[in-house]
User: Fold Glycerol-3-phosphate dehydrogenase [NAD(P)+] from Cereibacter ovatus.
Amino acid sequence: MIGILGAGAFGTALAVTLGREQPVMLWGRRGVAGLDVALSEQVRLTADLAEVEAETVLLAVPMQALGGLLGANGGRLDGRALVACCKGVDLATGLGPTALIAAACPAATPAILTGPSFAADIARGLPTALTLACTDDAAGEALQRRLSTAALRLYRTTDTVGAELGGALKNVIAIAAGVVIGAGLGHSARAALMTRGYAEMQRLALALGARPETLAGLSGLGDLVLTCTSDQSRNFRFGQALGAGAGFDAHVTVEGRATATAVVRLAAAHGIDMPITAMVDALAGGRVTLPQAIQSLLSRPLKQE
Assistant:
């Protein structure tokens, strides 16, 4: 049996696809997300976390809620394989998902499942490829076999730092890409923004010990392309609203917004220049106007690529 904590769109989608092949226990406080796909008989719903006794548990809660979940339930979850399914950097600690897991559950096996994926595609059984990162390669291989399905193909790595930062940073760049389109700056500008954003992702990730090939893989470049080019991405839609000067539903989770703030702090601590991330943080926080943000980026010194 697989346990899944979090019955939002992504947790429910994972329950749908994994439940086609094995028993799944799905925990959520307020029922499941409104995906237009039926749950199989192998998926059992519960609002009692104590009923989730699986040895492999997917943590499909928003990044900024992960620390609280682990803090309240670390003792109950310790000793299991805990696979984070969120993308971002914790605002309170500056840590990524697997580091949060390790701190709260020292006897657990931390891992992260990340990459280019929309919940609706996974739930419908459309072909999807993701990265599964675990520093223990033998444990990662076992998880890879356990969590792969006919339509969900997992590639594994031991580079949890690269996988985490690729997934976290691409959300910030996706907001910026949405700003470009929302402001009517055109597709050429978006392509330039994505390219320079990818350079920012590499600068920070490599400085923190990530491997270049991880950033060039599914969890980095692959996820960046998806979220910067589709309005299925909440981060992209949020950026579009910023660029157009329109409102945005405050109840929709936008992981890149908090991540931008956390990454600005992280980059400053390591002396890494990340102008696009800083612009997203300032624009989302209302500290600069859209014309000021655009002018700030366009007036940067000319240099070699």
